[in-house]
Amino acid sequence: MAYTNTPELEISTSQDNLNLQNVFDNLPMNKRNYKYNLCKIIDENTNNAKSSQFVDNVHMSPFDRPTNIYFTDSLDSLKSIKNTPLKGWASCKSNVCLREGLTYFEFQIKHIDWSKNCNARLGLSQRSFPLGQPVGSDLHNSIGIRDMTFERIFNRKRDDFINNDTTEKLMKEGDSIGFLVNLPSLENQYKQIQVVINQMIEKEVDEFELFHLNRYLKDLENIYLNKKSIQKERILIRYKNETYYESQDYVRNEALKTEDYLKLDGSFIKVFQNGEYRGDLTNNEDKVLTNFLPPFTTVNYETTRYKQIYNRLVKMNNMENIDILIPRKYYDDGSLGYYPTISLFNDTVVELNGTLDDMKYYFDVQKYILTDDSVLNKEVNSLEDVYLQAKNQDIEYDIVEFEKKKKELEKLQVSQEEIKNNQSLAIKEENNTLDFIQQESNDIEMEM
Predict the structure, then answer these.
(1) Exposed site from 115, 141, 144, 270, fewest CB < 10 Å?
(2) pLDDT digits (tens, 9 = 90+) for 121-165
(3) DSSP-assigned states of every residue in 212-275
């Protein structure tokens, strides 16, 4: 089962710029609410799983970008295509999402020129954030900062968040913009959501929706709280001679109102410019990070189709196959969280730095953390730390699933063998019966 981490993709011409060639043009990208990862391969002899990431480290995701943004010299550095009347803002997420704990990373401004309308916005976004617009310009799914004025962009509005003693309000070429992000533990988030799900169950009257809510409540207890694991609903596809995992991407649950969303208690986003603290993006009551887990986000679910299958199975009293044949509507596959996000306009270049070797001001910010009483958690992670944790969890999940599939296959083979043996016995018994009848018939003829 040979596998290479970076597939040999032929260089193709970009659809947006005939003069631009990009090796990543042949990758499937996040469109119509589907997301992709390279397929992991598990060695049957050692159970070792290969990484699902395109490059085995922190980078901007080649799967989570529109076609008018591309990579320069590496997967860390992004550039937007020179603007035309048909082109506008383009956003790209990193391959790492922040789900809990304290994390620091930096954006490096490589090229920016306001005189030529080359602009950038930097921030965080959830999976449901649309990539064809700048970070902070949607409702509740993202928050960011503006390059020209260093203003906060949140819920399509902009305002000031910088410390009063700081006079400079702009980003310059060469600047490192640091983000120190804190999120509550997943365990606390799951416990909050258990309360919400129980309240939803009390009000729900649709039998199919109740099935989903009750199954998710069971998952919260058995999978997420006890085992602290993840759940995946995905299929294998072939695209341009490579194998990928395809799964439904998450969208905002439009059935819920803004006031229904849970605030992530203790969360903050402190912003630094070249190691100097500039302010907190979440320093007002109405500027808060909301929960990103189901039911606040949900997959783009084919309710009508699966409801019909569910009703048929219920009528047949075939409850044991419902869990297999009805995919989950609410689940956490490990991709939910807040993603470092770069938004570019017209030939701008920005680089993500998420490793200790690349970050310029990590140790300066670490000193700040030790002296700031508002930062209760003093153990800060880099994006590389978060990536490795997620990768190990992903590999552990795939090994368990691989073993489960092997057992299911063995069980199926045994079952098929039993059926085959039973059929052979039945044929043998039938032949014996025919022989007996024939013998009896012969005996009767001889007596006559």
Answers:
(1) 115
(2) 999 999 989 888 999 998 888 999 999 889 999 988 888 887 655
(3) HHHHHHHHIIIIIIIS-------EEEEETTEEEEEEEPEEE-TTS-GGGSPB-TT-EEEEEETT
Q: What is the pLDDT of residues 355-392, one digit of tens each?
A: 999 999 999 999 999 999 989 989 999 999 999 999 88
Q: How many residues does the chain have?
A: 448
The C-alpha angle with vertex 411 and arms to 409 and 415, in degrees rounded to 5, equals 115
What is the chain's percent helix, strand, coil content, to nearest 5?
30, 25, 45
Confidence label for 444 from pLDDT (cuts 50, 70 and 90): very low
- HEC-encoded secondary structure of 276-294: EEEEECCCCCCCCCECCCC
Pairing of strands 69-71, 297-299: unpaired
* Strand 349-353 with 101-111, pairing: antiparallel
* Residues linked to residue 118 through DSSP beta bridges, in sequence order: 113
> How far from 300 is each of 120, 216, 247, 254, 443, CA to CA, in Å?
30, 16, 10, 11, 73
The answer to whether residues 126 and 135 touch, using CB atoms and an 8 Å cutoff, is: no
- Please give the distance of CA 81 from its chain centroid, rounded to a whole number: 26
Read off the pTM: 0.84
